[in-house]
Specification:
With 141 residues, the protein is an alpha+beta fold. The protein has helices at residues 90-102, 118-136; strands at residues 9-13, 16-28, 34-45, 54-59, 64-66, 76-79, 84-86, 113-116. Helices cover 23% and strands 35% of the residues. The strands form 2 sheets. A 5-stranded mixed beta sheet has the order 1-2-3-4-8. α1 packs across α2 (118-136).
Length: 141
């Protein structure tokens, strides 16, 4: 049975359970029209009520891309000339979570914390690349 795209997914890090989901969103202008595409990754500590969620926002802008069709896939975010991630991949979510924790996010604190995803991107993408390289093992094997 295929996974529902909008259903929260489970991630366990150092014994703590989180639920996460990614969605495409638009900010509304003063007339209520949708403008400014953004990808929003929400990571919520579990069980519910034991802390506040982390919201990582990737807003469209110069030199950046977010999901929006060809040639990019759903969930892709990145710099035109640099780091990129796919927010549907658990490893990318884990890397963003690790960077946010290293930079001071405390999941046990109530209330939503919203972070600019672009400030986390390069460190998270480097962690994903390092994990992939270590999974590949030594060259020639």
């Amino acid at each position: 049975m295929p996974r529902r795209l909008n259903a929260p997914r489970r991630l366990v890090v150092d014994g703590r359970v989180y639920m996460w989901m990614m969605r495409h969103d638009h900010r509304r202008d003063h007339d209520g029209r949708p403008v400014d595409c953004r990808q929003v990754l929400t990571i919520s500590p579990q069980p519910s009520g034991t802390g506040g969620p982390l919201r990582v926002v990737f807003a469209d802008g110069p030199g950046r891309y977010i999901q929006g069709g060809a040639p990019f896939g759903s969930g892709d975010v990145g710099l035109s000339r640099g780091a990129h991630l796919n927010l549907h991949e658990p490893g990318a979510v884990r890397a963003l979570l690790d960077v946010a924790l290293a930079r001071g996010w405390r999941p046990e604190v109530p209330g939503v914390l919203e972070l600019d995803g672009w400030s986390l991107l390069e460190a998270a993408a480097a962690a994903v690349a390092a994990a992939r390289a270590s999974d590949a093992g030594p060259e020639g094997s």
